[in-house]
Design brief:
This protein is an alpha/beta fold and 150 residues long. The chain folds into two domains: 46 residues, no CATH class; 103 residues. Helices cover 32% and strands 19% of the residues. The protein is built from three helices and seven strands; from the N terminus they run αβαβββαβββ. The strands form three sheets. Strands 6-5-7 form a three-stranded mixed β-sheet. It has a two-stranded parallel sheet with strand order 1-2. Strands 3-4 form a two-stranded antiparallel sheet. The C terminus is likely disordered.
Length: 150
């Protein structure tokens, strides 16, 4: 899929699709080398949105990469709302990336999600990132926030 859509990527600071592959394999190697120890230490846990077992405000930052918005055809708007509310419950700030659905087109859920969280008192920002996808972030009066990338 990446080679098919190569023209839709910003190639800075990563210069090529081959470099992307090398960097991803390197990251996976580091993760796999750490996984057994990290699991024993409780750093890796199996959780599933839209319901997480963590305490309110347990984290400073919650990240969701290549899941929400990417599968907009498979996961409805309500699933996205519940999942982002849950991310905001367990963290002071939440970031979601990318804000694109499969095929690199904008997710149809983004406008409704932005409106909902702004109306609920969250600060919401969409920030463009080098990968060309963007990021949205925000915080409400309690310090909780939603951050999404596109």
């Amino acid at each position: 899929m990446t080679r098919k859509n190569i023209h839709q990527f910003v190639w800075e600071p990563i210069s090529s699709i081959d470099e992307v592959g090398r960097l991803r394999m390197e990251a996976m190697g580091k993760f796999l080398a750490d996984y057994d120890r990290g699991k024993e230490e409780g750093r890796y846990r199996s959780e599933s949105l839209p319901s997480l077992s963590f305490s309110d405000g347990q984290f400073h930052l919650a990240l969701c990469s290549h899941f929400l918005f990417l599968y907009s055809d498979q996961l409805d708007l309500e699933f996205h709302m519940e999942s982002i509310r849950e991310m905001c419950r367990v963290s002071k700030e939440a970031r979601i990336s990318p804000l694109l659905q499969l095929g690199a087109s904008p997710s149809p859920h983004v406008p409704a999600v932005v409106d909902y969280f702004e109306d609920a008192g969250y600060g919401v920002d969409i920030v463009r990132v080098l990968a060309g996808a963007g990021v949205v972030q925000g915080r409400n009066e309690r310090g909780n926030g939603a951050h999404r990338e596109r």
